[in-house]
C-alpha cells in the first residue's frame, strides 16, 4: 500500500484548503501585536516632534537669556562723510564728524622705455625702493634680460615690496608706475633707482620721474582734531569704528539696539507657539474623523505644558516690584499661546531698558524668565527628563512586543505543523479505509456471483 504524500489524495477532501484557512486564522493572532508595535513607533515619532520643537524653543531662550543682547548698540549715520559700526564697548551718544580729507596712497612713475619688448636690464640686478618710512625700504631682485613687464611682475611677486606695480603709456613711451600699498604720508614711496637699473635702455627722451606723495586723513570728532594714516579709524570714539568716505560732514547717533531685543522676543514667542501647536496636534481628538492624536492624555506632554506654563505665569521681582508678562507686552491667550503687543514692548524698551533686561535675563543674583525657562527646557530634554523616559518606555515595550511576536510565530508554526501531521494521518487512514472498502466490495461481489451460478445449474 503506497504512502500518501499530498493532502487530500487519500481522502478526496480539500485538506490543503482547510489547512490554509486554519493557518490564516492562526496568523491573525499576530495582527494585534503588530498593531501595538506600530502604535508605539508612532508615539516615539510624536515624541521626536516634540523634542525638536522644544529644542528650537530652547535655542530662542538662549538668545533672550544672553546679557550681551541688552548691551548691544547700533550706530546710525547721516551724511556721506563716514560709515560707522558700533561694538559692545560703545556708549550711547551723538557725535559730529568733519572730514577735511581722506588718507591717500602715494604714486611714483619711472622714466620711459620706448617699447614693451625692450630689454630693461640685460644683466639683472636689484631695484631699490625708498619710502618716507625707511623701515619699508626694500630691494627687489630683477632677473637678467627682463623687460618692463618682467620688472612689473617681479615687484608684484615680492611680498615685501610694499607697492603694487603697473605699466602706463603716456603717449611717448611706457612707464613703470608704483602705488604704495599703505595710505598716509609715512607709507609714501619717495624714490627708485630704475634709471640706473635700465641704464642705456631707456627711451631717447626718458622724461623725469613723477611722484605724488600720500597724505594722512584729517578729521574732527565733536571739534577734536584727529590725524590718521588710514581711512579706518578705530579709537576716535570708544567702541565705534569709522570708515572715512569723502570730505564733508556726518552725524553719528549711537543708541541701544532695541531691534535685536525685539527680534529675540519675537523669536521666543513664535517658537513657544510652534511648540504649543505641535503638542495640541499630537494630543487632540478629531471628532469629525474619529481619530485621536498619538499622545492624547500622555503624561509627559502634560508635564511639559504645565512646567512651561507655571514659569510663564510667575512674575519677576525687580527692585522690590513685581513685573509681569504684560509689562513686556506679552500675554497668555485663552488657547494657551503667547501674544505679543509690539507697542507695549517698544515702550518698555524706551522707558526702562534695564527692567526689560532684568525681566528676561535676570541679574547676578537670580535668573530671569528666559533663564528659568531655559533650565526647565534643558531638564525636560535631558536623559532623565519626561520625554526621554517616555521614549525609553515605548522602546522597551516594542522590544517586549517583538519578543512576543516571535514566540507567537513559533507557536503558530508548531500548531500548523501539528495540524499538517494530523491531516496527513487522517488522509492516510481514510485512504487505507477506502482501499479496504474497495477490496471487500470486490470480494463480496465475487461471492455473490458464484452462488448465483450454482443455483441455476441445479435447476437446469
TrEMBL record:
Pfam families assigned: FliD_C (PF07195), FliD_N (PF02465)
GO cellular component: bacterial-type flagellum filament cap; bacterial-type flagellum hook; extracellular region
Gene Ontology BP annotations: bacterial-type flagellum-dependent cell motility; cell adhesion
Classification via InterPro entries: FliD, FliD_C, FliD_N
Primary location recorded for the protein, binned into one broad class: secreted
Keywords attached to this entry: Bacterial flagellum, Cell projection, Cilium, Coiled coil, Flagellum, Secreted
Domain Flagellar hook-associated protein 2 C-terminal: 214-435
Coiled-coil segments on the chain, per record: 384-418
Signal peptide location: none
Span of domain Flagellar hook-associated protein 2 N-terminal: 11-105
Compartments (UniProt record): Secreted; Bacterial flagellum
Function: Required for morphogenesis and for the elongation of the flagellar filament by facilitating polymerization of the flagellin monomers at the tip of growing filament. Forms a capping structure, which prevents flagellin subunits (transported through the central channel of the flagellum) from leaking out without polymerization at the distal end.
Subunit architecture: Homopentamer.
Family: Belongs to the FliD family.
The protein's name in its UniProt record: Flagellar hook-associated protein 2
Native organism: Franzmannia pantelleriensis
Amino acid at each position: 500500500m503506497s504512502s500518501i504524500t499530498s493532502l487530500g489524495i487519500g481522502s478526496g477532501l480539500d485538506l490543503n484548503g482547510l489547512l490554509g484557512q486554519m493557518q490564516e486564522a492562526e496568523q491573525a493572532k499576530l495582527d494585534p501585536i503588530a498593531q501595538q508595535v506600530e502604535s508605539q513607533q508612532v508615539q516615539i515619532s510624536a515624541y521626536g516632534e516634540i523634542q525638536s520643537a522644544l529644542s528650537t524653543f530652547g535655542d530662542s531662550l538662549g538668545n533672550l537669556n544672553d546679557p550681551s543682547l541688552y548691551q548691544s548698540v547700533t550706530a546710525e549715520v547721516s551724511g556721506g562723510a563716514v560709515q560707522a559700526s558700533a561694538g559692545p564697548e560703545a556708549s550711547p551718544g551723538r557725535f559730529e564728524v568733519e572730514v577735511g580729507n581722506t588718507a591717500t596712497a602715494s604714486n611714483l612713475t619711472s622714466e620711459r622705455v620706448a617699447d614693451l619688448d625692450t630689454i630693461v636690464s640685460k644683466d639683472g640686478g636689484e631695484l631699490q625702493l625708498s619710502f618716507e618710512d625707511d623701515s619699508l625700504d626694500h630691494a627687489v631682485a630683477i632677473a637678467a634680460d627682463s623687460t618692463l613687464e618682467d620688472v612689473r611682475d617681479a615687484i608684484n611677486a615680492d611680498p615685501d615690496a610694499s607697492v603694487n606695480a603697473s605699466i602706463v603709456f603716456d603717449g611717448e613711451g611706457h612707464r613703470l608706475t608704483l602705488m604704495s600699498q599703505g595710505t598716509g604720508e609715512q607709507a609714501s614711496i619717495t624714490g627708485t633707482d630704475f634709471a640706473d637699473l635700465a641704464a642705456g635702455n631707456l627711451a631717447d627722451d626718458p622724461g623725469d620721474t613723477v611722484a605724488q606723495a600720500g597724505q594722512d586723513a584729517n578729521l574732527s570728532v565733536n571739534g577734536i582734531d584727529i590725524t590718521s594714516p588710514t581711512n579706518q579709524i578705530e579709537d576716535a570714539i570708544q567702541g565705534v569704528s569709522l570708515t572715512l568716505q569723502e570730505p564733508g560732514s556726518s552725524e553719528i547717533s549711537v543708541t541701544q539696539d532695541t531691534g535685536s531685543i525685539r527680534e529675540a522676543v519675537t523669536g521666543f514667542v513664535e517658537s513657544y507657539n510652534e511648540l504649543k501647536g505641535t503638542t495640541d496636534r499630537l494630543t487632540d481628538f478629531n471628532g469629525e474623523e474619529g481619530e485621536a492624536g498619538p499622545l492624547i492624555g500622555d503624561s509627559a506632554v502634560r508635564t511639559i505644558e504645565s512646567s512651561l506654563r507655571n514659569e510663564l505665569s510667575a512674575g519677576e521681582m525687580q527692585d522690590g516690584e513685581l513685573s509681569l508678562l504684560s509689562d513686556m507686552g506679552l500675554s497668555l491667550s485663552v488657547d494657551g499661546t503667547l501674544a505679543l503687543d509690539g507697542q507695549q514692548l517698544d515702550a518698555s524698551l524706551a522707558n526702562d531698558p534695564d527692567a526689560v533686561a532684568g525681566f528676561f535675563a535676570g541679574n547676578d543674583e537670580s535668573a530671569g524668565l528666559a533663564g528659568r525657562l531655559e533650565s526647565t527646557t534643558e531638564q525636560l530634554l535631558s536623559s532623565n527628563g519626561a520625554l526621554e523616559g517616555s521614549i525609553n518606555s515605548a522602546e522597551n515595550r516594542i522590544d517586549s512586543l517583538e519578543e512576543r511576536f516571535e514566540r507567537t510565530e513559533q507557536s503558530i508554526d508548531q500548531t500548523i505543523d501539528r495540524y499538517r501531521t494530523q491531516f496527513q494521518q487522517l488522509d492516510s487512514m481514510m485512504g487505507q479505509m477506502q482501499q479496504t472498502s474497495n477490496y471487500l466490495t470486490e470480494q463480496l461481489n465475487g461471492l455473490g456471483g458464484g452462488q448465483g451460478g450454482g443455483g441455476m445449474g441445479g435447476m437446469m
